[in-house]
Design goal:
It is built from eight helices and six strands. Helix 1 crosses helix 4. It has a six-stranded parallel β-sheet, with helices on both faces. With about 210 residues, it is of the alpha/beta class.
């Protein structure tokens, strides 16, 4: 499956770098200001979904009603706090084996794209000093439909000028795995086989692929 791929499309959070912890801290801080607790278990529901949908889930958890204007303000407040966290990112926070695997794929002539819901993806890649390892970056500023809709992966395949059938998606979230499959690509799940049941294979991290 991996030996024949022409393109590789990577999610960002949980695959290349663990910024999910910073998302959680920012969402938890917002919940505290709104007067309720937002736990790590609640946060699992936010994996792979857009900022707007994440806020909807958070408000649902807290039983909080808000106008559209209030929601926009909340989302903006959360994002500013999140950006404060990721402004401290450096290459040491790249997940084990991720940079090495990207470099290996490039040496083999595989085209590489990022396919992420994050609207801060390009900033994060620059902080990690790995922007030049990607041929295309498709993020939340370029697509409107959240995973499990396949839009982000279809757009990434198109940006690489490849058929989605010739691409492999690397994802750590259930919604992302479903999006990759819906796009017609093979999917490597990164995380728990119990959660990522629909992936073609599941690994603990990209470092596992360096030994193959």
């Amino acid at each position: 499956m991996l030996s024949g791929m022409k393109g590789a499309i990577f999610d960002l959070d949980g695959v290349i770098v663990d910024t999910a912890k910073y998302h959680y801290l920012a969402w938890r801080s917002l919940a505290e200001r709104l007067g309720f607790e937002f736990t790590e278990a609640h946060n699992e529901r936010l994996k792979g979904v857009s900022r707007v949908e994440s806020l909807r889930i958070l408000l649902e958890v807290g039983g909080v009603e808000a106008t559209e204007e209030e929601r926009l303000e909340m989302a903006d407040t959360k994002n500013k706090e999140y950006i404060n966290y990721i402004s401290q990112l450096d290459p040491s926070e790249i997940l084990p084996g991720a940079k090495e695997y990207l470099e290996l794929l490039r040496s083999q002539g595989v085209k590489i794209a990022l396919g992420s819901a994050s609207k801060n993806a390009e900033f994060i890649l620059s902080r990690l000093s790995i922007t030049d390892l990607f041929d295309a970056v498709i993020d939340g500023t370029k697509v409107s439909k959240a995973k499990p809709d396949p839009e982000v992966f279809l757009a990434a395949s198109a940006a690489l000028q490849l058929n989605p059938l010739d691409c492999v998606v690397f994802e750590d979230a259930e919604a992302g795995v479903q999006a990759g499959k819906a796009a017609g690509s093979k999917v490597v799940g990164i995380g728990s086989p119990d959660i990522l049941k629909e992936a073609d294979i599941v690994i603990a991290g990209l470092y596992e692929l360096l030994a193959q």
